[in-house]
Write a structure and sequence with these properties.
Elements (H helix, E strand, L loop, with lengths): L1 H143 L5 H14 L1
Helix pairs in contact: 1-2
């Protein structure tokens, strides 16, 4: 068919021209765009690599900070233990000092009370001795009908009190 042959001949030159233009565009884009695409891929790879390196550095820094923190916490615990021990020792010393002061005060009061009791006892014994001396004189006067000297009666009362 001649019509088809004619169409093929006119379109064949256009198809060849189209293929040439497409090849130029393809190779032109490949030459112009391929380096840009490759640069973008390389830039992304560098950015990812840099980000990973920064993350590793941050992780190492965080580990160092954590280690420093733990050392400081251990030191603080140690210091707290020392401060607690010192506070306990000081409190014990203060308590011991207060107890010693209270003991001294109580000992002083006890000595004063014992002295007061001894004085009261001596006074009571002297009064009892005086009453017993008088009673002895009166008993001797009534029973024996004679008189006894006060010194003699007092001597007899002292001897009786000493023997119990």
């Amino acid at each position: 068919m001649p019509q088809i042959d004619q169409v093929m001949i006119s379109y064949a030159s256009q198809i060849v021209a189209l293929l040439i233009v497409l090849a130029i565009i393809y190779f032109g884009i490949a030459k112009a765009m391929l380096p840009k695409v490759q640069d973008t891929i390389d830039a992304r790879a560098r950015r990812v690599s840099d980000d990973l390196a920064a993350a590793d550095a941050a992780h190492e820094k965080a580990d160092e900070i954590e280690e420093t923190y733990r050392e400081q916490m251990n030191e603080a615990r140690s210091n707290a233990g020392q401060v607690t021990a010192e506070a306990k020792a000081k409190a014990a010393a203060d308590t011991e000092q207060r107890v010693a002061a209270a003991d001294e005060k109580l000992d002083t009061e006890l000595a004063a009370a014992e002295a007061s009791l001894a004085a009261a006892r001596e006074s009571a014994l002297a009064e009892i001795e005086g009453v017993a001396t008088e009673a002895t004189q009166q008993i001797v006067t009534r029973i024996a009908g004679g008189e006894v000297a006060e010194a003699e009666a007092r001597s007899a009362v002292k001897e009786a009190m000493a023997n119990g």
